[in-house]
Amino acid sequence: MIDGGFPGWVRERIIAAIRKAAGELDLEGVILPDIIEGAVGAQARAIGGATLPLFSRYLIDTNVLFKETA
C-alpha cells in the first residue's frame, strides 16, 4: 500500500513506477503482493500517532519489534 501526505498524482506516479520496476524483476517462486493506492493521505501521521496510547496499554510487549535476537 502506497500512501502519504502528497498529491494524488504523485502517489499514482509512484505506484506506476513500482509496478514497472517489479515487472522487470525475476520473481520465479515469489508471489508479488498487490501494489495498491492508499486512501488515508495526509492524515496517516495523525492516525498512527493516535494508536500509540492503545499499543502501550493493550499490547503485551510494546518493544518486541526492537529487540535483538540472541
Structure description:
By secondary structure, this protein is an all-alpha fold. It has one domain. The chain has two helices and no strands. It has helices at residues 8-23, 44-58. It is flat. The relative contact order is 0.16. The model has no long low-confidence stretch (mean pLDDT 84).
Total strands: the figure is: 0
Q: So what's the oligomer here?
A: single chain
**What's the mean pLDDT score?**
84
User: Unreliable runs, pLDDT <50, ≥5 residues?
Assistant: none
Discrete helix count: 2
Structural class: mainly alpha
Instruction: Work out the helicity level.
Output: 40-55%
Q: Any idea what the shape is?
A: flat
Please describe the biggest sheet, giving its number of strands, its sense, and whether it closes into a barrel.
Answer: none
Produce a short descriptive summary.
Helix content is 44%, strand content 0%.
Helices and strands in order, then pairings?
Blueprint (H helix, E strand, L loop, with lengths): L7 H16 L20 H15 L12
Question: Which terms summarize this structure?
Answer:
70 residues; single chain; mainly alpha; 2 helices
